[in-house]
Amino acid sequence: MEKPKVNVVLATYNGERFLKRQLDSIVSQTYENIDIYIRDDGSKDNTVAFIEKYIKENAKGRRIVLLDNGGVNLRCPQSFYEILRRCDKGDYYSFCDQDDEWYPEKIAWAVERLEQEDKNEILLYYTACDYYTDKGEFIRRSPKQKEKLELSDVIYYTPGSGFTMVINEKARQELLLQVKLGKELHDRWLIRGAVCFGKVLYDERSSATHIRHEEAVTSGDAGTGNLIKYFIQQEILGPGAKEDKKSLQYFYHTFENNLSMEQKKELSVFTRDRFSLLNWFRKVFYPKRLRTRTPGEIALRILFVLGRI
After folding, report:
1. pTM of the model
2. Angle, helices 294-306/277-284, rounded to nearest 10 degrees
3. Rounded to the nearest 5°, which phi and psi values hold at 256?
């Protein structure tokens, strides 16, 4: 009996110097039934030429499909979504950044766990991961997540990184293909959708390494002092939190007819634009934690007090 098909979804952009290590780790997976779909988003370097050569010389029997991008730059996450629209139907879909390096059993672990669940349910599996600098220095392992996520855990925080996530066909259909997608990053959109309408499966094993480039280091990699500075610049003084609220509003309106009354009530606290003293009080004194790190949680509460979001 053939094992379930896993489609690896890889969006590239100016990634020539990272791709060999990434692709080597995919074609070397212990799991056999994998197809790899790549869409380049208009790279200015030799990324496309490298991929074409790799397909001819290094694929190790794997099916690797380089999609024609039509000369269109879609940017993230739309490039991922375009691949998911155009790839052949699979049982599962695994997201891949161009500068990851997967551990050999990454896909095998995912399929083993997902196959224990009802395929007629929206499923999202994700794991821990290890972060390194582009000089090969270890930064950290991702923090351990809850076994069972609540809606409050995915309103202003993303517990898992996209490159560790694997979704099933039901999730692809109902969370991606059958709705009009916004600009929110795919990992936050998908994990929030899975919490609301399906099941999230967390594996505390680390399945991949991810390079944090100096210009792309996020708040999650910063020490407390730099983290406070990040939130002041990006959210209290900058547009970051307002953009997150817009994305949350878009999610709410997209799935409004599918949300339970309890979910609508909880999300409406954070999505309303019209000011009311009662709703301001509910946000400021919301009883559940919305972010795992204290500076981020404090930044949100300040924004609530100021009425910025």
Report:
1. 0.93
2. 170
3. -55, -40
Instruction: State whether residue 123 is helix, strand or coil.
Output: strand
What average pLDDT does the segment 103-115 reach? 98
Place of tokens 């050569």: 53
Residue with tokens 């390096």: 101
Position of tokens 């599996």?
Answer: 125
Residue whose C-alpha is closest to residue 129's, from 97, 151, 169, 175: 97
- Percent of the chain, pLDDT > 70? 95
Query: Using CA of residue 201, residue 202, residue 206, residue 212, what is the dihedral sign?
Result: positive
Query: Rounded mean pLDDT of 124-128?
Result: 98
Identify the band that residue 233 occupies on the pLDDT scale cut at 50, 70 and 90. Answer: confident
**DSSP line for 143-200:** PP--SS--GGGGSS--SS-GGG-EEEHHHIIIIIISS---SS-HHHHHHHHHHHHSEE
